[in-house]
Amino acid sequence: MSTPLLEVRDLVKYYKATGFLARNTPPVRAVDGVSFTVGKGETLGLVGESGCGKSTVGRTILRLQGATAGTVRFDGTDLLALDRSALRQARRRIQIIFQDPYSSLNPRMTVGDAIAEGIEIHDLAPRAGIPGRVARLLEEVGLDGSYASRYPHEFSGGQRQRIGIARALGVEPDFIVCDEPVSALDVSVQAQVLNLLADLQARRGISYLFIAHDLAVVRQIAQRVAVMYLGRIVETGPTEEVLARPAHPYTRALLSAVPVPDPTTQRLRIVLAGDPPSPSNPPPGCPFHPRCPHPARDARCSTERPELHQIGRSEVACHHAESPT
Ligand SMILES: Nc1ncnc2c1ncn2[C@@H]1O[C@H](COP(=O)(O)OP(=O)(O)O)[C@@H](O)[C@H]1O
Ligand code: SF4
Ligand SMILES: [Mg+2]
User: Fold this and answer.
1) Range(s) of the domain holding residue 204
2) Mean pLDDT computed over 137-165
3) CATH number at residue 281
4) What residues are in contact with ligand 2 under a 6 Å CB criterion?
5) Does 284 fall in a domain?
6) What is the pLDDT of residues 175-191, one digit of tens each?
7) Residue 238 CA, distance from chain mean position
8) Pairing state of beta strands 224-229 and 232-238?
9) β-pair type (224-229, 43-47)
10) In this structure, is residue 227 part of a structural domain?
11) Count: domains in the chain
12) How close is the Cα of 31 to the center of ligand 3, in Å?
């Protein structure tokens, strides 16, 4: 494989407890040794339940917050080691879009000014050329160029997400972290926004880290997928492989919640016992063992942590991934 555009190695992010009890409270191990790569023009889907550390991975890559340990190489440069001015340059190339674009759009700023902001900061167009460029960006995301003079509250959720995408595109990024960009949208609107992201990728060769809590969304957009549980990746591989032959019991449970397109084939819904354990006090051994329904689960599961290892075309962190279920 050619050199990946983004290479994350052993990324760790612990949040220290604050307040007067902090000294006796263990840190939250939000991300606990995560490694993955994303190639040019590729989408990696990052999936898992709420609280497993997906957004922390996204924010740490962008250095919106510091990492506790690890390396993040982007196009050959270690982002975690950059000084302020080098980071500013790199920031143009890596953008982020959020679940709720409304919260990141200033309500008192026109949509046009919001899109123009990044173009101006990075000096990417002469002043006179900016309105035309903003109009073209709006059209590229399927909106009317004249909407530039309107305010965010005048738009629907799907349209606001398109505006968020136009704003990210304005600075000509190579990489976009998409943090649950369709989770708040109706299913029909979700499909439109996913199609838009896929079209932009085909046209511009952008790479995505696409974060979702649901495998159905990732199936539509990602070539590869990584499944997270309690701050770690438990399974990763080509999307069609992981969906057709999920090898980790947690992936199987997540997948069992995804509706099957053909209603005549039933899939048995695996209901996991209990909530995910606290990331400030993760279980010893396999972090999934207190909830694991695998029939081969044994004493080793509660004492020895399984590392990712190759099974078929995927990598799986389970001692019994090859045993029958
Ligand atoms: N700023 C923060 N301070 C302390 N804990 C945090 C902070 N941000 C996230 N967390 C905790 O880190 C864990 C992972 O959170 P997050 O990355 O937001 O998960 P996800 O995006 O998968 O829902 C959660 O337990 C969350 O409560
Ligand atoms: S290592 Fe054991 S507890 Fe963990 S997922 Fe595999 S079977 Fe379940
Ligand atoms: Mg999140």
Assistant:
1) 6-316
2) 96
3) 3.40.50.300
4) 248-249, 286, 288-289, 292, 294, 296-297, 301, 306, 318-320
5) yes
6) 999 999 999 999 889 99
7) 16
8) antiparallel
9) parallel
10) yes
11) 1
12) 12
